[in-house]
Write a structure and sequence with these properties.
7 strands, 241 residues, Rossmann fold, alpha/beta, EC 1.1.1.-, SDR_fam, 44% helix, NAD(P)-bd_dom_sf, 8 helices, SDR family NAD(P)-dependent oxidoreductase, 17% strand
C-alpha cells in the first residue's frame, strides 16, 4: 500500500487484532515506524511484535487509565521523537436494550470508545506538529442507529462530534482530524454466526462484509500526505449498507 507513509511516525491503538492490526502491518509495510498498544492478549502482542521486527513497539496499556495514556505518549516521544499521525482505533463493542443497561456497562463502552479517545489525544497533542494527522475510528452504525446498541452508537457518534470540533480547534496548528466509519467486517477472532453474516451482507450494496484491510486503507489514506487538504471528514467504509 503506497499511502505516502515512508518515514512517518504513527501511534495506532488496539493494534493486535482487526482494523488495528491491519493498519499497523500496512503502515509498517509502507515504510512507517509504528508504536501500537494492546490491553491483555499477550500472545497476539508477541506475534505482532515478531512480525513487525525492529524499529516498532508493541506496548501494553489500558487506555481507560489516564496514567497509561500518558505512559504511551511518553513511549512515542522516546522511541519516535514525535508523531506524524495518531490513530485512535481501540474500542469495545456493546449490546443490550435500554431497559437492560446498567451504569457499569454504559461506562465500560463510553470509557474506551469515547473518553479514552479524548484522553489519549490530549496526552499526544504535544507530539503532533504541523502537517500531522489524527484519525479516529468510529462506526457507520453511529450514522443510522442500531436497536440494542444505544451505548455503542452514542459513543461512536461522540467520536464523530469530537472529530468535527477538533478539526476546527487544531486546524490553525495545521493538524488534520478525520474519522473513518466502518461497517460490519469479517473477523477471524469472533465471527458473526453465518445466518447473521448473510443477512448483513444482503443489506449492503456490495453484497458482502468488509475486510479489516479495506478499512485500514482508508485510515492510512487519512493519515498520510495524500489527504493533506482533508480535515473534518468522515469516510464511511461500509459497503453501502
Amino acid at each position: 500500500m503506497d499511502a505516502a507513509l515512508a518515514g512517518k511516525r504513527l501511534l495506532v491503538t488496539g493494534g493486535t487484532r482487526g482494523v488495528g492490526r491491519a493498519t499497523v502491518l500496512a503502515a509498517a509495510g509502507a515504510g512507517a515506524r509504528v508504536v501500537t498498544c494492546y490491553h491483555h492478549d499477550e500472545a497476539a502482542a508477541a506475534a505482532l511484535a515478531a512480525r513487525l521486527g525492529p524499529g516498532h513497539r508493541v506496548v501494553k496499556a489500558d487506555l481507560t487509565r489516564p496514567e497509561d495514556a500518558a505512559r504511551l505518549a511518553a513511549e512515542c516521544r522516546t522511541e519516535l521523537g514525535g508523531l506524524d499521525a495518531l490513530v485512535n482505533n481501540a474500542g469495545v463493542d456493546g449490546h443490550g436494550r435500554l431497559e437492560e443497561l446498567d451504569d457499569g456497562e454504559w461506562s465500560r463502552v463510553l470509557g474506551l470508545d469515547l473518553t479514552a479517545v479524548f484522553v489519549l489525544t490530549q496526552a499526544c497533542l504535544h507530539l503532533l506538529g504541523p502537517g500531522s494527522a489524527i484519525v479516529n475510528v468510529a462506526a457507520s452504525a453511529a450514522l443510522r442507529g442500531v436497536p440494542g446498541r444505544s451505548h455503542y452508537t452514542a459513543a461512536k457518534a461522540g467520536v464523530l462530534g469530537l472529530t468535527r470540533s477538533l478539526c476546527k480547534e487544531l486546524g490553525p496548528r495545521r493538524v488534520r482530524v478525520n474519522a473513518v466509519a466502518p461497517g460490519v467486517l469479517e473477523s477471524d477472532g469472533d465471527p458473526l454466526p453465518p445466518p447473521v453474516a448473510e443477512r448483513v451482507a444482503r443489506m449492503t450494496a456490495l453484497g458482502r462484509l468488509g475486510r479489516p484491510e479495506e478499512v485500514a486503507a482508508a485510515v492510512l489514506y487519512l493519515a498520510g500526505d495524500l489527504a493533506g487538504y482533508l480535515t473534518g471528514a468522515t469516510l464511511t467504509v461500509d459497503g453501502g449498507i
